[in-house]
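Fold it.
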Amino acid sequence: MTFSNGLNASAATLTRLRTGESNCPFSGMCVTCLDGCPGLCEIGKSAIRGKEILYPQPFGKMTSASQKDYPIDYSHFNIMGTAVGAYGIEADPDKAIFPAVNLESFAGANGGIKLDLPVVIAGMGSTDVAANNWSHLAAGAAICGIGIVIGENVCAMDPNSEIKNGRIIHSPNMAKRISDFTDWYSGSGFIAVQGNVEDTALGVQEYVIDKLGVEAIELKWGQGAKDIGGEVKLNSLERALQLKGRGYIVLPDPTNPAVQEAYKAGAFKEFERHSRIGFVEYDSFMNRVEALRNAGAKYVMLKTGAYRPADLARAVKYASDAKLDLLTVDGAGGGTGMSPWRMMNEWGVPTVYLQALLVKYLDKLASRGAYVPPVAIAGGFTLEDHMFKGLAMGAPYTRAIGMSRSALTAAMVGKNVGEAIKSGKIPNEYKKHGDKIEQVFIDAEELKSNLGAEAYGRLPVGAIGVYSYFERLAQGMRQFMCGARKFSLQHITRDDLVAITKEAAEVSGINYVMDCDAAEAEEILG
């Protein structure tokens, strides 16, 4: 098996090669590097713009994900159907129809969090692309009855936040993010607020519990897209100084007079704000969980990234001992609003491998009778077959699929198309459906009926896109599950998958397709 990780040119970094596809597979360089070329590859642009080329561009207007082709991914597994029996419903052709499939899932140590669809929109933090689309995304999550997490750094990045004695006492941005969900909440799903090192120091979790009525807190160890803290770009000296004053790492140092002069002279147009990395230790983790519960948190969750296997084992063990309400495990290769491009491609344990390890570790806990936390798996999931495979490979522990990049895409497209319709500039692709939102968006009339005309009129138009996207996933999931004769999620098992390569079978523990049902087939044949 061969695959290139050169990536000396990518749409993510707005770079390209002079020789097109004729490149060295290991270095990624053009086969011939010509003196006289203006240098539009990553190496060439780095010679001119330096550290700026570390990150996907343009920041604040896009999301990005790994371009690396891993040896094994979920396409190396197929979903099994059967012509026999039914689970979760009477085996009657008039009753066992795919619209009857129940997609409800439950999280929480005592099953107290109901999800109408087994999805959690993973942490959307302080990046511009998340902030600019949040109202659409949050309202969409609420009307779909799924979970959504407010990511790190939101309070400190709020220019209108009030901080007293190093603690947050008011953040209009955070308050609005929460109300963007709760205004549409009808009993299913949840909103959680994530916390990193800076958030913890500012008392963000205590603030949202005490002042904003948040019930769920997510502790953050990391994510699958990067091995460092969060980062964003700052487009003014004033913002850079403000964030430096709030305790962040800001590069270059905005307090340095020489840096200020270079910025004013136009040598660069953006500063970088970086979060610190955290350090995990058992006693301090358990103490923090207890402190959050004492502060009033009804649910405490943990999000961990694509770290080495020993760190995954720690996450599983700590989540078990603390009886956490959800453990989200995020594999490498997913997506982000801003992570170093090479890191996103070359760091961490890819999702299939990480989930295989996760199941192994959870099995060990279960065999000892220990508490097994509800799990969400994230890292590149976008469509219904991905969802089924993630739930089946992680059965019986996986209760939800973590998504963020695809959900944000649905919100952005819904927002942009909706605004285009209102302005009379309908994209050609959608003109054939009509010139009104209720004609172009297939689920708009259904939403208007469900919500009522007044509420529907207030709904951010991008939320219709989110709703339609997840309705498509729900329909697709029901069809896959009906074919497998599994009419509710708790009946999905690892046997509902086969590996179509021996390497995929070896890594995952899923049956190789040619070995599947071997004993049963022999018995049938006599």
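The first strand starts at residue 64 and ends at 65.
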